[in-house]
Amino acid sequence: MIDFIFVFVLGLFIGSFLNCVSCRVFLEEDFVIKNSYCPNCKHRLSALELIPVFSFLLLGGRCSHCKNKISWQYPLVEIATGLVFVAIYWSLGFNLLGTFTSYQVWSLIYYWTIFSFLIIAFIYDARHYIIPDRITFFGTIISLGWIAFSFYSNILSMENILPIIYSGVFASLFFFCLWFFSRGKAMGFGDVKLVFLLGLILGFPNIIVALFFAFTLGAFIGILLIAKGEKKMKSQVPFGPYLIAGTLFALIYGSDIVNWYWSFSLK
Ligand SMILES: [Zn+2]
């Protein structure tokens, strides 16, 4: 249990860092860690103000200097990152008493890293309706590196690698068609690039689970928003967050769902 708490707290701090990065990508600043500051008055945050969630509660959601309201995005992203980190740790079968190979430790680091990239893409797409190319590009490089490392470690054979590459290519082609035939109205081109990365992360058939989840959740929330009168039928809605939520879902439950599905169709 103590390890879960430790992983959650680690996720809170990473989430705080991802908040900073997602703001700076937009401002075209460097990725280099500089002192964090209030986006309104540029007041530098003290060590106490850098503690995730806790500082937000302590300051009552306001900057200690200019009293400007701090966005709810900050504590929400921190908590969400904490939960994502715990979910990955748990789904890879880690626990404090178990033993694990160095490959398992590397896979934990890989999934934490790649989901940190996806969380930035999530925040960014939700706020600005665009997925930064650098995020997709570096995420793709890391995932290809991971596949190569798995091959080198004798975990994946050539027959395992091809379906992973195909799931990226076919998911991307499918989204390219959606983008092309709707003239960019149903799907942005950022999504075409993003799903290639998601295919590399999940492989086949988990990518299908992720896309199915994303379209179902997207339709459900879309109907809710239209019913509440917040969006119209033709409103632009960023799809990246749904795809990323679907990827997390497929990573954790994908194999269970695929087994469940096959158990039905074989009867
Ligand atoms: Zn301020």
Report on the structure:
By secondary structure, this protein is mostly helical. The chain folds into two domains: 1-99, no CATH class; 102-267, no CATH class. Helix content is 69%, strand content 0%. It has nine helices and no strands. The protein has helices at 2-27, 54-58, 73-91, 102-128, 133-152, 158-181, 189-202, 206-227, 240-265. Helix 3 runs antiparallel to helix 4. The N and C termini lie far apart (40 Å). The model has no long low-confidence stretch (mean pLDDT 87).
Supply the key terms:
mainly alpha; 2 domains; 9 helices; binds zinc ion
Question: How would you summarize this macromolecular structure in one to three sentences?
Answer:
About 70% of the residues lie in helices and about 0% in strands.
